[in-house]
Design a protein that fits this description.
Elements: H1 7-11, H2 23-40, H3 50-63, H4 84-95, H5 99-118, H6 121-133, E1 138-141, E2 157-161, E3 164-175, E4 182-188, E5 198-204, E6 210-215, E7 224-235, E8 239-240, H7 246-282, E9 284-285, E10 288-289, H8 294-322, H9 333-361, H10 371-379, H11 389-404
Parallel strand pairs: 1-4
Antiparallel strand pairs: 2-3, 3-7, 4-5, 5-8, 6-7, 9-10
Helix pairs in contact: 2-4, 3-5, 4-5, 4-7, 5-6, 5-7, 7-8, 7-9, 7-10, 8-9, 9-10, 9-11
């Protein structure tokens, strides 16, 4: 890391953050940066121990009070409603030092937000305070072996039987599978209705018929796996919202959290830019530093511009989301558009910025354990989960073409 003003701080002079952020937001960003640097970065473990590290990270994040930002104030949260700008700032700050810590924070929000949106008061009382305190690990279970981007094609079923629902099916690529205390599971209560037949349920880890089948290993450490529901019986009161509302709950959750994925990518890109700038200043080749070569200077300029553009798109999208009550967001196409644009641009740009940073480092960049090598592996998944880049393009195009009809 370089001393003095960072590349991020220099680039941020283009547009003051106060245009989108309150003084409290700015104080939060500084607090998360210090916390991540002093507590998260120094507790990293060998990658083979990443599950233990993930749980330790969550404890640290809870101890700092950051999980209070993922639930509403009525159930232990920081604000009356979940503030998307705060989530973005926290994810951006955590990801600069640990994508693993960022994912643990993010899943507490993603896994509990359906309950915040549509859960009964009983479900909120049972789960949200525990999420906020970090005493319950959350998970969000949509993806199946044959249902990824096409979430409406999921095959997991849920049938009402007296006072219970019985669930059957397989969920794959589920973050926190195996360590979560509860899962928000999406299943079809009326298969003939397609997406309108999808409902959401809270399934606790000790529910009879819930069985972990395998842990999956990604290119960057991340708790993720597969589980089966085999005659899994849960009380009817664990239904989130009404039958048939699951797809809407799913989409509203993803539309709110996609912007935060962009923020996590921004944190990775910022760190890569800082590492590349510092290395270019000190690395000498052919009798001069890399920073004196015009071609490399142009690379840094392009990287900084992409970082800044990402930052502004994310802040704009998050500010829009915060200006509309969560219950009304499903009817606002402009929020869908801005959230998808922020996620698409920030994740794709971060991939390019990190690739350039690795190129600037040369052989040091591909050395296992170097910062840019870690960033290179960590960024890749962000272009896939919560809607691939191709899905974001489809969403953006759909919104544009639909608007043209009005």
């Amino acid at each position: 890391m370089s001393s003095g003003a960072s590349a991020l701080e220099c680039a941020s002079q283009v547009a003051p953050a106060s245009f989108f952020l309150t003084p409290d937001h700015q104080a939060l960003a500084e607090r998360v940066e210090k916390f991540s640097r002093d507590r998260i970065a120094l507790t990293s473990a060998p990658e083979k121990h990443y599950i233990a590290e993930a749980i330790d990270n969550l404890k640290e994040i809870a101890g700092e009070g950051l999980l209070r930002y993922v639930v509403p104030g009525s159930h232990g949260g920081k604000f009356g409603a979940v503030d998307i700008r705060s989530l973005c700032l926290i994810r951006r700050g955590l990801s600069r030092y640990s994508a693993l810590a960022d994912s643990m924070f993010a899943m507490q929000g993603l896994g509990s937000y359906p309950i915040t949106l549509a859960g009964s008061e009983s479900l909120k009382r049972r789960f949200l305070p525990r999420v906020s305190a970090g005493t319950a690990i959350a998970a969000f279970a949509v993806t199946e072996p044959q249902a990824g981007s096409d979430a409406a094609s999921l095959q997991t079923s849920a049938q009402r039987t007296g006072a219970d629902y019985v669930l059957n099916g397989t969920k794959k690529f589920i973050s926190n599978a195996g360590i979560a205390d509860f899962y928000v599971v999406f299943a079809k209560t009326d298969p003939a209705q397609g997406r309108k037949g999808i409902s959401a349920f809270v399934v606790e880890k000790d529910a009879p018929g819930l069985r972990m089948t395998q842990s999956l290993e990604l290119i960057a450490p991340h708790p993720i796996g597969e589980f089966r529901l085999e005659g899994c019986r849960i009380p009817a009161e664990n239904l989130v919202g009404l039958e048939g509302e699951g797809y809407s709950i799913m989409m509203r959750t993803l539309e709110s959290f996609r912007t935060t994925v962009g923020a996590a990518a921004l944190g990775l890109a910022e760190r890569a830019l800082e590492e590349a700038t510092a290395y270019a200043r000190k690395r000498v080749q052919f009798g001069k530093t890399l920073s004196e070569f015009e071609g490399l200077r142009f690379m840094l300029a392009e990287m900084a511009t992409q970082v800044e553009a990402s930052r502004l798109l994310i802040l704009q999208a998050a500010s829009k989301l915060d200006s509309v009550p969560a219950a009304d967001r499903k009817n606002d196409s402009s929020l869908v558009l801005s959230s998808s644009m922020a996620k698409l641009f920030a994740t794709e740009s971060a991939q390019r910025v990190i690739d350039r940073a690795l190129q600037i480092h040369g052989g040091m960049g591909v050395l296992k354990g170097s910062t840019v090598e870690r960033l290179y592996r960590e960024i890749r998944a962000l272009r896939v989960y919560e809607g691939t880049s191709e899905i974001q393009k489809e969403i953006i195009a759909h919104q544009l073409l639909r608007a043209g009809k009005n």
